[in-house]
């Protein structure tokens, strides 16, 4: 069983699809992402990952589950939309201008 099928089965067994519209899924993605972010607040990354990896996995899974549900509701293929986004990012961030730099694509114009 693919992961989206497992997610949908969990949801459907509980008759929760009725609550999973795009607006509420977007809200849930944001809320869960903020719960993930909160794990890192006021700590360095190493401290968090060593002490909180189980909680990080849980919160990351929540973000991904809601993301999968939204994609499924909108009949979007996860692999396809990620591949499309990577192609766009490759154009925005050519290796020749962005390698080793943590700059937004709008700041790369002045690079080599």
From TrEMBL:
Name the domain of life.
Bacteria
The Gene Ontology biological process terms listed for this entry are: nucleoside triphosphate catabolic process
Work out whether the entry's keyword set contains Hydrolase: yes
Q: Which organism is it from?
A: Streptococcus iniae
Please indicate if the UniProt record lists Hydrolase as a keyword: yes
The molecule here is called: Nucleotide pyrophosphohydrolase
User: Which keywords annotate this record?
Assistant: Hydrolase
Q: Which InterPro entries match?
A: dCTP_Pyrophosphatase (IPR052555), DCTPP (IPR025984)
What one GO molecular function would you report for this record? nucleoside triphosphate diphosphatase activity
